[in-house]
Specification:
alpha+beta; three-stranded antiparallel sheet; 7 strands; globular
Length: 127
């Protein structure tokens, strides 16, 4: 029996990129390799240019670099802050490909509610 694929109940095109503002966007070696191929650079160059190492007693991660944003505190370096879209969508890391891992996105639901309450379909709550 074929498993039915359920369509997501959110529209990323109507979001200002909340998930791209997460402070820790951890990526794996194969994600760095994908970005390196996308930009035509070495894996070492991609790691140095696009990531930094985040270490605690419990964690050792490669995180995507950020830059200051006018909507959120900061966003992923690959996020177009004017168009509010990913600039490396075809080469985006796995964590971005599977987000939000469900048919619903909590931020999208919150945003829809706020836009209805404000009577403004483009409203973005202040961070």
């Amino acid at each position: 029996m074929k498993k039915k694929v359920l369509k997501p109940r959110y529209d990323c095109a109507k979001c200002p990129g909340y998930c791209c503002s997460y402070a820790r966007i951890a990526i794996k070696d194969f994600d760095i390799e994908r970005l390196a191929r996308h930009f035509g650079i070495s894996k070492t160059a991609a790691r140095l240019k696009f990531t930094y190492r985040y270490q605690t007693k419990e964690l050792d991660e490669q995180l995507l670099r950020h830059r200051q944003d006018h909507v959120f505190k900061s966003t992923c370096m690959f996020f177009d802050q004017d168009k509010r879209r990913c600039t490396v969508y075809e080469a985006r890391p796995s964590v971005c490909r599977i987000y939000p891992e469900d048919r619903t996105c909590g931020y999208y639901e919150f945003l829809k509610f706020e836009r209805i309450q404000q009577g403004d379909e483009d409203f973005i709550p202040s961070a």
